[in-house]
Amino acid sequence: MDEKPENKKLFSIGNLIFYGLAILISLFAVYYFGEIKTDFELFQTINPYWLLLAVLGQIGTYFFGAMVYQQLLLGFDIHIHQTVWRLFKISFITLFFNQTIPSAGISGNTFLFNYLQKSKIAVSNIISLISVELLSFYASIEIIIILVVMLSMLFLNIPGSLYIIFGTGFIVYFLFGLSVNVLSNKYTIDALQKKLASIKLFTKLADKFQTFFTTKEQVERPTQFFHEHKTAVYRAVGLQFLIFLSDAFTILALFHGFGLAINLLTVSAGFLLTRIISLLPISPGGLILYESGMTYFFSRLGVHLSSALIITILYRALSFWLPMIVGFFVYRKMRSE
């Protein structure tokens, strides 16, 4: 009788995720040992002041992510005792999942959903909040694409093929946003549940789906929230914009740390192109695709190939490898709390 609760706890979904991530990180560390070793060697040669600024830039991405959650929680009138530090950790974990499992921001929000549900928040509010968070992210990316393209036409000599990637990214993010808006509708959720229930193979899944989303309250459409809480939406979009700038600033600082002159517009263009191409679900965290993509795009934008490779490796160390290791333990600690 005493062993059952322990076994149940040992093999809970949360623990399985934790152990799975532990195995994943171990495999990555072994497979990419040479690259990680190169990271440490390169960090020893960079200007320490610029390296500190690059680290602060990455910390800024998690801080602004926490501010996005704070604004939306207030906008939805969700009053739970959350300090900025706890929201910072939640932001860290969501970005950690988004890095590990590329899904245009959806994978990280699954953790946020479970977290808020355990805080006794109505499912309808959680669905609406996550939908608005995703749409604020997509909206900011769309604005950034437009700005980068317009400024690049004026001040940069970009190959025409790269503008095709910008255009493709704009369409893809628009479709993501459209899908989120449609799927956040309660009638769509009900229709999907009925469709699953009609297929014998998915009967059990449909029952769980219905239990999961059953709520007496109407799920607030993101467009409705935008209309009623414009200030919160503008702030959320602005903060998402700052997250992108913090990442771009990290790359800019790494370039200057090696004495390489480059402007913020070139960095933003190369980083944005990499973000778009890394949406392809080829590997966890966009490994290989992300590194090769960023190196290629910066080289096409006028950066020497070897310099582009070095900056890419260092940026990935700060934005992927280090957060992946730290996020692993932060996730474990928050689960225990």
What's the arrangement of secondary structure elements?
Layout: H1 3-10, H2 13-31, H3 33-43, H4 48-75, H5 84-100, H6 106-118, H7 123-155, H8 160-183, H9 186-197, H10 203-213, H11 222-228, H12 230-257, H13 264-277, H14 289-300, H15 305-336
Tell me what the structure shows.
The structure is a single chain. The chain has one domain. The chain is mainly alpha-helical. The relative contact order is 0.14. It is globular, with a radius of gyration of 21 Å.
Primary descriptors:
337 residues; 15 helices; mainly alpha
Following the backbone from N to C, one meets helices and strands in this order, namely: HHHHHHHHHHHHHHH
Distance between the termini: 26 Å
- Overall pLDDT metric: 76
Could you tell me the number of beta strands? 0
The 3D shape can be described as globular
Low-confidence stretches: 1-11, 208-216
